[in-house]
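A quick aside before the break. I want you to see a complete sequence-to-structure record at least once, exactly as it would be stored in a machine-readable document. Don't worry about memorizing anything.
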Amino acid sequence: MKRACLCCGRLFTPRANVPEQQYCSRRICQNARRQRWRKQKLASDADYKANQYDAQRRWCEKNPDYWKHYRASHPAYRRRNRQQQSERNKKRTLARVVTESLIAKRYASKDQSDIISGIYRMVPVEGAMIAKSDAYLVKLNLITGSYPQGP
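That is the input. The structure line, written in tokens, reads:
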């Protein structure tokens, strides 16, 4: 009985000794299968993840000049990396301008506040465009009226 490959969609006949086979034998499909397995394993097995991290760290210690040599011998990689970094910098600058405009109100003497009591999501501004960061839920209670100011 033929089955469609999860990667390329082509029909293939599963091997008799692997009745649950979901990927055909093409190299690109087998690579996709391995990549999927590795991603799931990293997400579900803390020991495996720690071992992979340690192996990567040891390799980097043994090969400290790898990226220096790689960049020197791959000018297209260097150009692409610089272009992407430039785009990230533009996004970060744009985010900073938008955020700074939200921090201070232009017309602070407004009689009525736009802020209402409720639960808000608070997200750190610094580095928000480069990497994901955790958000915090905070509850704000609006207090109206005049209260004496401190000294």
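Two observations worth writing down. The beta strands are 3-4, 11-12, 118-122, 136-140. Residues 43 and 49 are 8 Å apart (CA to CA). We'll return to this after the break.
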